[in-house]
Design the sequence.
């Protein structure tokens, strides 16, 4: 996947693209894969980096959504559970089974939660990841050695999926390109092109070269997540807002806080959210909050209240006390929740259903949804866009389409397992250049070879692209990521033919960003 090749494909194109897809998060990338796999010519344009916003800041779960059962949204849970299995089949190197335990401290909690999990099992049917079961007190402690034991009665165990969101996003971009599509990051759509009131394309600004491109398309798809209304307002300045954005924050702790192989799930916290403590990449991710926000941003910053809330709740359920100094990183994402204009109520009560609609000018907008159901959302969207663009219909094949990197035994590659089928090429690179093999920092799972690979094969353009998304270093340890930024910048500069001044500017920019991933007491002056 090479950006220069993508730019050449864009500038040499004489015919309208079948689809221009605005937005390079889970939904937009899913649409690009869906279209390219069916044999269409899609062009995906992302104004920053792939999965820069919400799609890189999830709780890292591929799940049906236990909490939606209580809301009575059985159809959403059913759809998500079946998409969960498809995702595991299509990206086995990134999706794995994970045991969850719901601890019970009151007499009624065990039977109540067990009943809900049995419904969850029933909806999953033959595609279940594992059968739920009641746990006694001793079994609960065995599964969760560091659980708060005071008042503990037992628990309920169930199974769901876990994944790496941005590794999946990168693989989706590669899959779209593998099937003939074009995906470009740092290409911002600044306007919609129209003829006789109908949307016929877009105007896009290349944020690297400064070039402006006028691009024609049979159909334009707005898949911009939290920026959905921005594109809708380009189409119609009077368009009513449909989004109710909500910020969710996570904190990341050392693995010693939850050393077992099971995650903790608390069905309902003070703000109505489900709380998870999840082992992930040799760390523990604790989240999430649910706070309504008025403005959206690529880089939302966790508030002190949100971080304090998560530390307080972690201390309710973990025997080892969490102090602010134990937090290795914090990250926040904004959910693009869809609600009817003028609706009110808590954002935690808004379901993660997706909505698809076409404006009077023909702009196709897909909004809402969740990571687990991205493929179904994309199938629905491309079906609608085909009709809008008056194109011949080709059926979906993504239900069984293996994504780039898919490998059924990726664990054999050790700390390179997330690269799946690409891991041998990375190993060959390290054999060719042994200086790229050692870890850049003992606190982080990154080698120089991964930086070079990200630049050559994964369209990484900046230090942040490498440390936040091609690897997950920024989320795993923000301070250590700042420490290795100069070496990452040096390697990127070598690959991209950039001067030392570029590398220095990259380090400064990344450091400014990374400080927002540290709690305030840990940020250097």
Sequence:
């Amino acid at each position: 996947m090479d950006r220069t090749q993508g730019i050449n494909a864009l500038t040499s194109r004489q015919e309208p693209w079948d689809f221009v897809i605005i937005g390079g998060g889970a939904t937009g990338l899913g649409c690009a894969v869906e279209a390219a796999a069916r044999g269409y010519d899609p062009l995906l344009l992302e104004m920053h980096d792939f999965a820069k916003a919400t799609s890189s800041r999830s709780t890292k779960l591929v799940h049906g959504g236990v909490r939606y059962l209580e809301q009575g949204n059985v159809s959403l849970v059913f759809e998500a559970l079946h998409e969960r299995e498809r995702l595991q089949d299509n990206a086995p190197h990134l999706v794995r089974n994970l045991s969850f335990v719901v601890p019970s401290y009151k007499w009624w909690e065990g039977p109540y939660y067990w009943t809900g999990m049995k419904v969850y099992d029933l909806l999953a049917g033959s595609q279940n990841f594992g059968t739920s079961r009641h746990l006694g007190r001793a079994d609960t402690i065995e599964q969760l050695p560091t659980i708060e034991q005071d008042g503990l009665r037992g628990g309920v165990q169930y199974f769901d999926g876990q994944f790496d969101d941005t590794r999946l996003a990168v693989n989706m971009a590669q899959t779209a390109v593998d099937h003939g599509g074009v995906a470009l990051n740092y290409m911002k759509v600044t306007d919609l092109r129209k003829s006789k009131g109908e949307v016929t394309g877009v105007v896009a600004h290349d944020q690297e070269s400064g070039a402006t491109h006028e691009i024609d398309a049979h159909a334009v798809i707005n898949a911009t997540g939290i920026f959905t209304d921005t594109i809708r307002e380009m189409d119609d300045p009077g368009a009513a807002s449909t989004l109710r954005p909500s910020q969710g924050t996570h904190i990341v702790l050392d693995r010693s806080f939850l050393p077992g192989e099971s995650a903790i799930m608390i069905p309902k916290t003070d703000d109505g959210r489900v709380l998870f403590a999840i082992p992930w990449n040799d760390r523990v991710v604790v989240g999430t909050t649910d706070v309504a926000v008025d403005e959206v941003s690529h880089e939302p910053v966790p508030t002190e209240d949100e971080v304090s809330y998560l530390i307080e709740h972690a201390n309710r359920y973990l025997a080892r006390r969490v102090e602010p100094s134990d937090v290795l990183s914090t990250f926040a994402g904004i959910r693009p929740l869809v609600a009817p204009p003028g609706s009110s109520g808590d954002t935690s009560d808004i379901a993660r259903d997706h909505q698809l609609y076409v404006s009077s000018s023909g702009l196709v907008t897909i909004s809402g949804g969740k990571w687990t159901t991205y493929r179904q959302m994309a199938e629905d969207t491309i079906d609608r866009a085909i009709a809008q663009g008056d194109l011949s219909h080709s059926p979906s094949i993504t239900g069984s389409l293996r994504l780039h990197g898919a490998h059924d035994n990726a664990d054999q590659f050790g700390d390179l397992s997330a690269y799946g089928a690409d891991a041998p090429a990375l190993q060959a690179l390290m054999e060719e250049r042994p200086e790229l093999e050692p870890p850049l920092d003992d606190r982080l799972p990154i080698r120089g070879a991964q930086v070079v690979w990200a630049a050559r094969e994964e369209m990484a353009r900046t230090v942040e692209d490498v440390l936040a998304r091609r690897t997950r270093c920024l989320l795993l340890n923000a301070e250590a990521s700042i420490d290795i930024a100069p070496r990452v910048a040096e390697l990127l500069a070598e690959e991209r033919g950039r001067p030392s001044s570029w590398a220095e500017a990259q380090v400064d920019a990344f450091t400014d960003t990374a400080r927002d991933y540290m709690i305030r007491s840990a940020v250097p002056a």
Notes: Residues 95-162+244-335 form a domain with the D-Amino Acid Oxidase; Chain A, domain 2 fold (CATH 3.30.9.10). The longest strand covers residues 212-222. The longest helix spans residues 478-496. Confidence is low (pLDDT under 50) at residues 341-345, 347-351.
